[in-house]
Task: inverse folding
């Protein structure tokens, strides 16, 4: 049986990014992404719903995202779904379904505050992400 685990998302950051480091010292950041969907009901009424998704970004991509993205920044994400579970400090079992980014494309040409227009990177792709079994499991944001 064939399998495919591929995700494509386009949306806006809901908050500024925080750069952290895993046990192996690898940079990691979580993007909280709002993806809007507009649709028309059977009665002709236009509605909009928002889906909030957590996207995990590793390595140099995480550093570039932290440097150039801010709350409200539009991005295009290409990645895969990952399900993780861990036991929290109080003994409670936690679970999360998240996207692990393979590629983050910046859609805005506006730099963060305090940066010159020419300093912004607009496309940060690459293969800096470790496999699901290394890194990430110890960072339950």
Result:
């Amino acid at each position: 049986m064939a399998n495919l685990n591929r995700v494509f998302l386009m949306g806006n950051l809901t908050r500024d990014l925080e750069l952290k480091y895993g046990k192996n010292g690898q940079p990691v950041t979580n993007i909280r992404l709002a993806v809007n969907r507009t649709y028309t009901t059977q009665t002709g009424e236009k509605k909009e719903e928002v889906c909030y998704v957590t996207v995990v970004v590793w390595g140099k991509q995480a550093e570039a995202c932290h440097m150039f993205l801010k709350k409200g920044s539009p991005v295009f994400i290409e990645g895969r779904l990952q399900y993780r579970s861990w036991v929290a400090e109080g003994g409670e079992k936690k679970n999360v379904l998240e996207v692990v980014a393979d590629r983050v494309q910046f859609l805005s040409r506006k730099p963060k505050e305090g940066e010159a227009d020419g300093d912004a990177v607009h496309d940060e792709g690459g293969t800096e992400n470790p496999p699901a079994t290394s890194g990430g499991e110890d960072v339950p944001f």
Observations:
- Helices lie at 59-68.
- Confidence is low (pLDDT under 50) at residues 117-141.
- DSSP finds one helix and seven strands in the chain.
